[in-house]
Amino acid sequence: MQKYSVVSMFSGCGGMDLGLIGGFDYLGKRFKRNPFDIKWSNDLNPYACATYEHNLRHKIHVGSVWDHIDTMPATCDLLIGGFPCQDISINGKRRGIAGERSGLYRAMVEAVRRMRPKMFVAENVRGLLYAYNRESLETVISDFSALGYKVTYKLYLTADYGVPQSRERVLIVGVQDDVAPFVEPEAATPKGSWITSRTAIQDLEDTPLDQTHSHVWSLAKRSSDQGGRVLNPDKPSPTIRAECHGNNSFHYSLPRRISMREAARFQSFPDDFIFQARLRETERMIGNAVPPVFAWHVAQSIKATLEAFDVSESKVLVAAE
């Protein structure tokens, strides 16, 4: 089977990469392996990098992307990455791409310019589509389009793709020279059949605290707004955040907040995915991650686009001969 080479930027602990590669189990379902080969990856957070290497068994460059960008391969088939969203998020400073963190999207633009991948996929928060970020979004689209890519974007609800969480994220997809269109993945679990909080974590209710398996939780007391929120067992979890500071939801039936392993379940990480950090850093990397099951469904559309790209490319070569 042909494999497609991948460069992964802002990789975090590897949620998007795991979903792209496939070959894992989640809630009793097998997600088959996909024809992707990660050739290069990078993240700033050392705990996320340690977790990435432990679970994906692949070396990752630790530190600023600008310090490692010259070590990227000369080319790749696919570039993926979730550039930092702190300046874009509704909970952030709303500086858009002028902010120090979210401005790092320019590193993705530079990587696309250098490697000329057949396609790229960039992930970000829903806030990128809000009115106060309109100029930022237009600039991002313009910068990628100027490199010769057909660029589209869409807001996705991950609950529609087998993730027991009401998480909304934007995917920006670019295909080189508009050779093959990107066909958005169809919903796998449309509203009415979403996986509920109870379904996702009920079997953990009697499981004792376990540091090794990240079944640990914040002891923060109730507070207003999100700090006092209780899970609805009949609905998907609210969005798992990276900077919770005690704001993770309370369990629907137990007198505590949800554990990090439960948060990982809501993010669709398999149970054998082990986080290499204590509670706060684990909380951060889980909240920052792309849900692997959602990424797996997106990977099917990426694969179809790359296969169509190869067919189109072959026809051009034959015609030239």
Please give the CATH class of the domain at 4-186 and 290-320.
Alpha Beta
Strand order within the widest sheet?
Answer: 5-4-1-6-7-9-8
Tally of DSSP β-strands: 9
What is the string of SSEs from the N terminus onward? EHEEEHEHEHEHEEHHHH
- Specify the overall morphology: globular
- In CATH terms, what is the architecture of the domain at 4-186 and 290-320? 3-Layer(aba) Sandwich
Give the CATH topology of the domain at 4-186 and 290-320.
Rossmann fold
| Distance between the amino and carboxyl termini | 26 Å
The percent of residues in helical segments reads 25-40%
Overall mean pLDDT = 89
Query: Major beta sheet, specifics?
Result: 7 strands, mixed
Q: How large is the share of residues in beta strands?
A: 15-25%
Helix count, DSSP H or I runs of 4 or more residues: 9
Tell me the radius of gyration: 19 Å
Secondary structure category: alpha/beta
Catalogue the unreliable spans.
87-92, 94-102
**CATH H level, superfamily name of the domain at 4-186 and 290-320:** Vaccinia Virus protein VP39
